[in-house]
Amino acid sequence: MSDYFEVRLSGSGGQGMMLAGTFLAEAAGIYEDKYIVLCKSYGPEARGGACRSEVIISSDPIVYPEVQKPDLVLAMTQEACNKYHKDLKPGGIMIIDPEHVKNIPDTDIEVYEVPLTGIARDTVGNEITANVVALGALAAIVDWVSPEALKNAILDRTPKGTEELNKEAFDRGYNYIVEKDVQKSRTVV
């Protein structure tokens, strides 16, 4: 049986969604020897406009290199949630940052409310690591890519001197889900 997953990471320009997509794609493609496709899309604004990074992860060659019905959507802002949730697969997973996303779509999805920005700010001391906190949470919710592969991909690309900060950010996101035994906040039908 083939494994095939479509992921959309969305937020606003400057939140690191493009880099998070690169981390996820490299973790699956390089460290786990899976087939991957990575696409990035920015709004017209350099910072503050909605943007997304999309990753397809498959155990078999990928025939069509575009996300059609994502299995998982990460929404870091309300604008990104509104814009990019629409084709989320029924029963799919949405991870939201409740600090920035107040209105959750009324569709058949599993919603995980994870205070990504708050975790980055309060425990790591730097909001810019919220994208890495998000990848830690993602790794604890799904098993499409291992936490070890994600950490390796992150550490391969982070600037010298920030390795420990990024490792801590990833672990905090992962442990938030595991230690608090976070369940989906609701399934909307």
Can you tell me about this structure?
By secondary structure, the chain is an alpha/beta fold. It has one domain (4-187): Pyruvate-ferredoxin oxidoreductase, PFOR, domain III (Pyruvate-ferredoxin Oxidoreductase, domain 3). Helices cover 38% and strands 22% of the residues. It has helices at residues 17-31, 78-84, 116-124, 130-141, 147-157, 163-179; strands at residues 4-12, 35-42, 50-58, 72-75, 92-96, 109-113, 186-187. The protein has a 7-stranded mixed β-sheet with strand order 2-3-1-4-5-6-7, sandwiched between helices. Helix 3 packs across helix 6. It starts with a strand and ends with a strand.
> Which blocks of ≥5 consecutive residues have pLDDT under 50?
none
Distance between the termini: 29 Å
Order of helices and strands: EHEEEHEEHHHHE
The CATH homologous superfamily corresponds to Pyruvate-ferredoxin oxidoreductase, PFOR, domain III
- What's the number of extended β-strand segments? 7
Which strand order do you get reading across the main beta sheet?
Answer: 2-3-1-4-5-6-7
Estimated share of beta-strand residues: 15-25%
Counting copies of identical and different chains, the oligomeric state is single chain
What's the number of structural domains? 1
Number of H/I helices = 6
The general outline is globular
Sheet/helix structural class? alpha/beta
- Describe the sheet with the most strands: 7 strands, mixed
| CATH class category | Alpha Beta
Known CATH architecture: 3-Layer(aba) Sandwich
State the CATH topology. Answer: Pyruvate-ferredoxin Oxidoreductase, domain 3
Radius of gyration: 15 Å
Residue share in helices? 25-40%
The average pLDDT is 90
